[in-house]
Amino acid sequence: MATPTQTTSYTLTANRLGCAAQETVTVTVTPIAIDILSLDTIPICKGVSVPLTATAIPIGTTITWTPNNGSLNTTTGPNVVATPQTATSYVASVSTAGCVRFDTVYIGVDSLPWNMLILPADTVICLGEKVLLTSLVYEPGDFGQIEFLWTPSFGQLTPDSFYNMVVQPVETTTYYRTATNGFCSATDSATVTVISVTSMEITPDQPVICQGDTVQLTATSPVPLEYSWEPTDGLSCTDCPNPVASPSQSITYMVTGEYQGCPIGGSVSVEVVVPPSINPVQEPLCPGSSTGLNLAANGNWSYVWTSPDDPNFNSTEPNPIVSPNQTTNYVVTVDNGVCPPETFEMTLFVSDNPMLNLSPDTILCSVNSIQLSAYAGEPGGTYTWSTGVTGPNPTVNLLLGVNNFSVVYTNSCGDSLTGTVIVELAPGIDVEILPTDTNTYYQGTVLNLSTTTTQPAVSYQWSNGSTTDTTNFVMLNLPSEAIFVTVTDDLGCTDVDSLTFSVLESMFAIPNAFSPNGDSKNDRFKVVILGENVEVVSMSIWNRWGQLVFEEKNSNEGWDGLQKGEPAASDVYVFRAVITRPDGTRSVKSGDMTLLR
Known about the structure:
Strand content: over 45%
Number of helices: 0
Radius of gyration: 64 Å
Low-confidence stretches: none
Strand order of the largest sheet: 46-53-52-48-49
Number of strands: 53
Distance between the termini: 175 Å
Mean pLDDT: 91
């Protein structure tokens, strides 16, 4: 057995019985080798290409690569590029002179989901808002060892190892998520832009005004805005940055705007201070008693009291105690520190011989009730009427005839006054115009009207000026006329009645032809009156030669077609008519007409 490492000739010599024989054989050794120049195992991420290089002996020998599954750019040559989709062992081999040599490299393949872009990639949020950063869903079973890590940590609201992340940053932040699966690693990012402007400044910040005054509010913002104020009460404008506010009471105004879709707002409270005031004593003071002058004293206000009736009186107390012997006037100036000082005058009544003033005795006509009045000349006290009603101004029911109402006034000192009011209730008078029916009349109709009353009247007054119990009423106005009468009896009681009439216009017409042939149809030429109270003052007719053939006055008999007792010829004639209307106006009508036989 020969194992030469290089080409070698071997000689065999044989001897037998003195005889020798010799044979030579040459063993040719061909040098052959191959080596892949890389690690035996190469880890990659799916989709990565790996260049592979192999050297072979003898030089120039063809190198063949397997497997031929499409993951190699070529299967021959010393240099190939492998792009395996799964873990693959690649073999490089050479052969020559019946000898084969090969070398192997193993490429391990890991992978990540095909699309892990973070959505939204870039977004804008308002300060305080949250946003979900997410990617397309993948099948977890295909990537059992995958791991995630989110950075930076501030603003994260969910664990940093989750596939998706909820964030709430306080400033613009770019978030990164690194995914790792075996040999694969990929980093995606998303930027969250934070609009941090959330408030605006309002000046003055704590305004205090007197009720009825105004204050200008000015809102300023570091960014341009459109302003909206609420509530709208007392604001000169609601969409401007500087409205003038005139609220009637303390109020808080809110102003809002929007910048890049984010709300921006502010508020200001306007304190409204009521003007200085007092609540003076209303009840009379009994002689020798004491009382405070101001029932609404405010210890935070300043007061200066004087009296024009008592030069020795002055005080700065909110509610000074006084004991006047007679009705006294006081003056006080009040200052609340915000509003202009106010000066008030008040009278403190001291009960001293009050007098009872009552509503006068009177006579009334056809009413059911009346309001009485009583005043003792001083405030307070009680008024008790004989009807059981209390108060200074009761409303009482009346009976026909004389009604007596007595009242007792008692003041706070126990003094009493009594009085009586007499009210006589008269039956009144009713009037009715006759005739009572309201008919339709033509313009110019004269209607005689009379009256009937429930009791004698002492005066009549018609709307047409008549002052008796009857009147003649002329229908003139279109389309209706109205008349009324007022009557008064001896107690001064009155009543009114009225009537309304429909008024038709009286019309007239003049024909343009007539046929006096004795058939009783259109035998006379005359004014055709449509209605009443139209009068024909005169009618004149001439033939074509200017000869007067007919004339009549204050009549409307008309022309019978005869001229001097003989039938006039069929021809065209000229007429002139003077007509008086119901309202007294006069119309003159002229023209031509045709006589037909």
